[in-house]
Amino acid sequence: MLVSEVRACLASRDDLERRGTSTREIAAAARGGSLVRVDRGWYVDAERWRAAHTEERHLLRVVAAEERRIGGSELVFSHASAAVLWELPLFRSAPHRVHLSGRAASGHVRASEPLVARHEVVVPARDTAVRQGITCTGLARTVADVLRAASFETGLSLADAALHRTAWSRNHYDEDAAEDLRRDVADRLPRGGRGVRRARRVLELADGRAASPGESVSRLYLVDLGFAVPRLQVPIAAPGRGFFYADFGLDDVDAWGEYDGEGKYTDPAMRGAGVDIEQVVLEEKRREDWIRGTTGRRVVRWGKANIVTAAHLATRLRAFGIHPPR
Length: 326
What we know:
The chain is of the alpha+beta class. Helix content is 46%, strand content 20%.
């Protein structure tokens, strides 16, 4: 979602009063649930808030904070707040505070306001960027900051997405570009401290061929269950010309894995203009039949409900007779 679109959804207290809403009515609307307060003096319609994804909700808070210019211009948006400006996912994370970094070098995280966390760290100019008119930490610094504080699932989804936007284009993965970003992130991790070991493990596993957080978490759980690290987006010659791409090459068990995101079927933008659900399902069946028939491998599919935990994924795989070799 664009910052300009988010800004159009926000209304300040002054905006509401100019439209004829009194201070008492604003407070009553917020208490009654028809308005949601996203920042001090900034509101959004409750229906719009309920319809928004986690990343959109946090971007609303970021833009409101920018409009209010919290803490002064020396601070830059960081951590999850920079992540949404870079259009990175916050899978299984719902930050309630906007993150700002700058000035002192103590590393202390201070709750300067209920909706704001200020990280008192030095942010050199090389680690800043401007995204849609808002100053934030650069991509590598943002990934490094998030990885230190996030869960494995959140961190890997975000790192994969950062590599994807840097190195993936038209079914081609630029290994050199991916390695450059991986090195830049690693250079911005401290030698030790809280979360650094986890961050380095996540960074080692990160792969920009993953096309969604669901694929990222699936890969993490496959490895945790004892499968070898799967190949991603494996090309398989299609009939005629071109290729089909399998999400996971489970080479150690001679199978293919497919993560089915719901949007593939339900989101018109993902299906394509004029394409209905029945057509998508039929094309997927033909694709799967071809892959199975030409490679001689089993194909197992899973979705969001099967990656709640690694155990859920293991149960799904066992139902197809697929077990980790170790």
